[in-house]
## 1
Amino acid sequence: MAHEDMPRRIFVNYRSDDTQAVALTLQREIERSLQRAEVFLDHRGLQPAEPYPDALRREIARATVVLVLIGPRWLTLQ
């Protein structure tokens, strides 16, 4: 498979209390605009009993792009 034919795997890191709406919009627009893009969002990409930290590390390692969404409450959320 040629490099340009490979799917782009995009990991979106966000805080659900702060930027979840932005993350969902970004996912929709990326998948609409880029034909061969797979966007990973934790609440949609993880299985219910899957160990959270291990799954996130695995998905980050598989990603070709990692986007970090930093919202206005990034530093104050617990």
## 2
Amino acid sequence: MSNTIDNQKNSDVFADDPLLSVQEAADYCKVSKSTINKKRREKSIPCIRAFGDIRFRRSDLNRFIDNGLSWGWSPVEAS
């Protein structure tokens, strides 16, 4: 019984913080796949390798955005 409860807790954690593919991460952040890959190579955004695929936690992407870390361009000020 305890194992079933533990599995359900783990499944709830992933439902709240899904693992996104490179394309899904790019779509979520509204940037190109090459930008996501560049930030991954720079170790600006943590990633997970699962069965040969690269995945990103949505919470890590949110933290990157919320901390105001740069995608490599400066914001344009409204005139």
## 3
Amino acid sequence: MKNVVVENFNYPVTPAQQLELFREVATILANVTYSPKNYVSVIREGFLLILKSWAQSDDIQLQSQAKRALANLDAAIK
């Protein structure tokens, strides 16, 4: 997996636990961005750059959820 940096993530977890956490967050963001009322909040809170980074991950599960969230955001722009 490519190194994914998330600022202020200083909890004592193993790399496998961190990956699982990132997958869960990406899935939540993909579901949250399905609703247009959440687009601005997701972008304002800084998740756009995180999703972009996760979309380039070597982990297919993380990558697919991040890309799903980004696709939902992209649909809002069109």
